[in-house]
Amino acid sequence: MTIDIDAIHKALANPVRREILAWLKEPEACFPAQEVPLECGVCVGQINARCGLSQSTVSAHLATLQSAGLVTVKRIGQWSFFKRNETVIQAFLASLHNDL
Predict the structure, then answer these.
(1) Using a CB cutoff of 8 Å and minimum separation of 24, what contacts does 94-98 make?
(2) What is the pLDDT of residue 75?
(3) For residue 88, what are the CA distances in angstroms to 34, 48, 49, 56, 62?
(4) Residues contacting 14, CB < 8 A, separation 6+
(5) Cα(54)–Cα(75) distance, rounded to whole angstroms?
(6) pTM of the model
(7) Residue 85's pLDDT is what?
(8) Per-residue b/e over 71-89, b at no fewer than 16 CB within 10 Å?
(9) How far, in whole angstroms, is CA 92 from its chain's centroid?
(10) SS3 label, residue 11
(11) Are strands 71-76 and 42-43 parallel, antiparallel or unpaired?
């Protein structure tokens, strides 16, 4: 698997994006009111509500995380559901451990 280390560093440079990743790590605790099973991911509307930022700002943060490969998105009807991409996150952490 090839990961874009620079894109991941850029994505992690923003505290809001790091916070979103932390929330997605424990979605049961952070998004208990979601009606769709959390196995599908967390609805973008739930993330928007928790962030307290404009929809366009949150969408830009999620796009950056997705572009870096840190999250995946699944469309169900008109909704987008986001999950952490644990494979990429673990590969990034291993790369840090081995290279630094």
Answers:
(1) 95/3, 95/5
(2) 95
(3) 25, 24, 26, 25, 16
(4) 61, 64
(5) 21
(6) 0.93
(7) 98
(8) bbeeeeeeebbbbbbeebb
(9) 14
(10) helix
(11) unpaired
Cα–Cα distance list, 100 to 6, 32, 64, 87, 96 (Å): 14, 38, 24, 20, 6
In the numeric block, the tokens 């440079």 are attached to 13
Q: Which residues contact 36 (CB under 8 A, 6 or more apart)?
A: 43, 76, 79, 81
pLDDT of residue 35: 85
Collect the ranges in the chain with pLDDT lower than 70: none
Residue 70 near residue 11, CB atoms below 8 Å:
yes
∠ Cα 16 21 25 (to 5°): 145
Structure tokens at 55: 């929809």
Q: 47 with 96: CB under 8 angstroms?
A: no
